[in-house]
C-alpha cells in the first residue's frame, strides 16, 4: 500500500513539474520561439558554408576506365586506361589509348594530331599539365602541383586531322549556298569529354612527374606484357582445338565401325559432319597461329622502339603543355 502511495506522489510531482514548465514556456513563449528559430538559421548557415568550402567530387559521374569515347569527325576514340594520383606532390597521371575507328585492326595513329584541353575544379593556383605521347597510339596527360583536395579534372580530346569529307568545293554559287546550310546542320564533332573525380582515381605515394623517356619505356613494357598474354591465350586455344580434333577423329572411328555392321545413312552423315568440324577447327588453329606470329612481330617492333628510346632516339612528338 505504501508503495502505491509513493508511486502516486512521484506521478503528482512529475505532473507538477510539467505544469510549471508549461507555465514557464508560455510566459517566455516569444523569447523561446526566437531562440529555436535562430538555432535553425544557424544550422542552415553552417551547413551551407560547409558544403561551399569543403572540396568534394564533381556531381557529374566519372568516365569509366577502358570506355571508348568518340571525338572529332573521323571516328576516332579515346579510352582512359589508368588514372593515378599522389596527394603528397600533386602529381596526377591519366593514361589514354587512341583508336582509329576507320582502321580498327591497326594500332598506328598520327598521334601528333591528337590534342587535349583541360580544366580543374579546385585544382589550386599552381597546377600545370602537359600531354606526353608514349607510343603510336597512347598518350599520358600529366599534372603536377594539383591540390590534394581537387574535386575533378575535365579533359577534352580533339582531333586536328583534316576531314576531307567535310571540305566542300562547290561548282556554283547555288550549290555553295545549299552546301553551307547542310554543313551548319550536320558538322558536329563528338564531344571527347572525360571527367575524372578525385574519389575515382587510384592512389600512389611513389608517383612522380617523370620524363617522356620513362613513360615511353613503361608503355613499351605494358605493350609487351599484353602481347605475351595474347600469345599465351592463343597457345592454350590451340591445345584445346587439338583435343577437339582428337575427339572428332575418335568419333569418326566409332562411326566407321558402326558402318561395317549396318549400312545406315545417318551414320555416314555423322562421319561427314565430324570431318567438317575438323576442317573448321583446323581453320581456327591456323587463325590462332597467325595471332601468335602477329603478336611476336609486335613484341619485336616494340622492343626495337624501346631500345631507340633508351638510346635517346625517340621518334615521337615532344610533350605539349595544356
Task: Describe the structure concisely.
This protein has helices spanning 2-27, 29-53, 173-186, 212-261, 265-310, and strands spanning 69-72, 76-86, 91-100, 114-121, 128-133, 138-144, 152-159, 190-191, 193-197, 202-203, 320-321.
Report Rg.
35 Å
User: How many strand elements?
Assistant: 11
The helix-and-strand class reads alpha+beta
Q: Measure the end-to-end span.
A: 89 Å
Order of helical and strand elements:
HHEEEEEEEHEEEHHE
Helix % is 40-55%
Profile the largest sheet: 8 strands, mixed
Secondary-structure arrangement, i.e. CATH architecture of the largest domain: Sandwich
The DSSP helix count reads: 5
CATH topology of the largest domain: Immunoglobulin-like
| Mean pLDDT across every amino acid position | 84
What is the 3D shape? extended
- Specify the CATH class of the largest domain: Mainly Beta
Beta-strand content bin: 15-25%
Domain count, please report it.
3
Protein name: Chromosome partition protein Smc
Keywords: Membrane, Transmembrane, Transmembrane helix
Organism: Leuconostoc gasicomitatum
Describe this structure in words.
The model is unreliable at 49-55 and 183-187 (pLDDT under 50). Helix 4 (212-261) packs antiparallel against helix 5. The chain has 322 residues and is α+β, with helices and mostly antiparallel strands. The protein is extended. It has helices at residues 2-27, 29-53, 173-186, 212-261, 265-310; strands spanning 69-72, 76-86, 91-100, 114-121, 128-133, 138-144, 152-159, 190-191, 193-197, 202-203, 320-321. 50% of the residues lie in helices and 20% in strands. The termini are far apart. Strands 1, 2, 3, 5, 6, 8, 10 and 11 form an 8-stranded mixed sheet that branches. It has 3 domains: 2-53; 69-210, Immunoglobulin-like (Sandwich), CATH 2.60.40; 224-321. It contains 5 helices and 11 strands.
